[in-house]
Specification:
The structure holds two protein chains of two kinds. By secondary structure, chain A is mostly beta strands. Chain A has a single domain, classed as Immunoglobulins (Immunoglobulin-like), CATH 2.60.40.10. Chain A contains no helices and eight strands. In chain A, strand 7 and strand 8 form a beta hairpin. Chain B contains twelve helices and seven strands. A three-stranded mixed β-sheet of chain B has the order 6-5-7. Chain B has a two-stranded antiparallel sheet with strand order 1-2. Chain B has a two-stranded antiparallel ribbon with strand order 3-4. In chain B, helix 4 crosses helix 8, helix 7 crosses helix 8 and helix 9 crosses helix 12.
Chain lengths: ~110, ~260
């Protein structure tokens, strides 16, 4: 399993804009490179990232071959209620990883 | 040139004098003018290094922590002897390369990790620049973050440090450049649009955006030698370790930043 780092504030006030940061370890091999013997290195990238909050999708990103290794995705949302964020990365070679983080909204 | 050719007898003497002047004239950066490569980073890269949840080198730190606690070889983990790295490894990376009496020469942190693996854990040594070795050295290195670089005062290290310094100021490669010409004489100026840093080893292993991965100081040295069109050494070679020893001494007292981020 790939290493992932999630940064979600543990607590927030209702209506506050919060920043979510995610970082995942992945080679993001573009598929355009060749080895020294001329063999093409197959593409191996994460192509989709989604974030759901209490089951509802709040953020989605499509990733492409030009994105660097270890993609760092940061975005904002409004804290409405306490709950759990679920982050999911999917990609080539049946790559799939899910992480969760919870927040308390006062 | 004409003066030398017209006086053939004094030619070699003059050449020697010139060479001696170049070596003695080579001025090291005064201690209070030294600055970390961090100072030349852009705002975004600084932010990346400053935030442990944005610094991609922290992924290697997580791997390193897992390896530190994992049993291997004869069933021993690093933690089995050394305990919690947060206390036992504090300041350790800031003291390497250190003298190894068995080899009669200094070893760097990577080599020490592998010695420990082979002798204490009876496990296979890890390859240089492999994911696992970098993870362990990054994890150990991070325990010295903020600590001043403190090269050992062991006098047996001196000749190796001197050898490193000699390599540092020696012109080499097709471009006929020495390390010192860029990093002592022309730091803060530009090379191909990039600011030339002072070349302090205070953040290694570090995440280099160009590499899209973490890498050791030796990888950086190899990179520079290739850029000078010089023949680079094998990873772990004595030349690199001597150079590391000199660079750490040159950066003595500067705070460690491991794991740093550099462009």
């Amino acid at each position: 399993m790939a290493r992932a780092l999630i940064n979600v504030p543990a607590k927030a006030k209702r209506g506050e804009i919060i920043t979510i940061k995610t970082l995942i370890s992945h080679v993001m091999e573009s598929g355009f490179r060749h080895t020294s013997t001329g063999v093409r290195i197959p593409r191996d990238i994460i192509d989709t990232f989604t974030c759901t909050f209490n089951g509802e999708e709040i953020f989605r990103a499509a990733l492409h071959p030009a994105i660097a290794a270890n993609p760092f995705i940061t975005f904002h949302t409004v804290a409405t209620e306490s709950g759990t964020f679920t982050f999911k990365w999917t990609g080539d070679g049946q790559f799939s990883q899910t992480e969760t983080a919870s927040i308390v909204v006062e | 040139m004409s003066a030398v050719t017209s006086l053939p007898l004094f030619g070699p003497v003059a050449a020697l004098l010139v060479a001696a002047t170049i070596i003695s004239a080579h001025a090291e950066i005064p201690l209070n003018e030294r600055r970390s490569g961090y100072a030349d980073l852009g705002r975004e890269t600084k932010a990346m290094q400053d935030d442990d949840t944005a610094n991609p080198a922290m992924l290697a730190v997580l791997d390193g922590e897992a390896l530190w606690n994992a049993r291997t070889g004869n069933g021993r983990a690093c933690a089995g002897c050394h305990g919690d790295a947060k206390t036992s490894m504090k300041g350790v990376a800031a003291r390497y390369p250190a003298y190894e009496p068995k080899l009669n020469r200094p070893v760097n942190l990577d080599q020490r990790i592998n010695t420990c693996r082979v002798e204490r854990q009876e496990a296979k040594p890890l390859a240089y620049e492999s994911k696992d070795l970098l993870a362990l050295s990054t994890y150990i290195g991070m325990q010295s973050r903020g600590e001043p670089i403190a090269p050992p005062t062991d006098p047996r290290l001196t000749p190796f440090r001197e050898a490193g310094r000699a390599t540092y100021i020696r012109r080499q490669g097709q471009l006929n450049l020495s390390c010192a010409q860029c990093h002592d004489d022309n730091w803060s100026r530009k090379l191909a649009g990039n600011i030339i840093p002072q070349a302090h080893p205070n953040g290694y292993p570090l995440y280099r955006l160009e590499w899209q991965s973490i890498g050791s100081l030796q990888r950086r040295l190899r990179n520079c030698l290739i850029g000078m069109r010089a023949e680079h050494y094998d990873y772990g070679s004595p030349e690199y370790v001597d150079l590391e020893a000199y660079l750490m001494w040159r950066a003595r007292g500067m705070p460690m930043e491991t794991p740093a981020v550099r462009p």
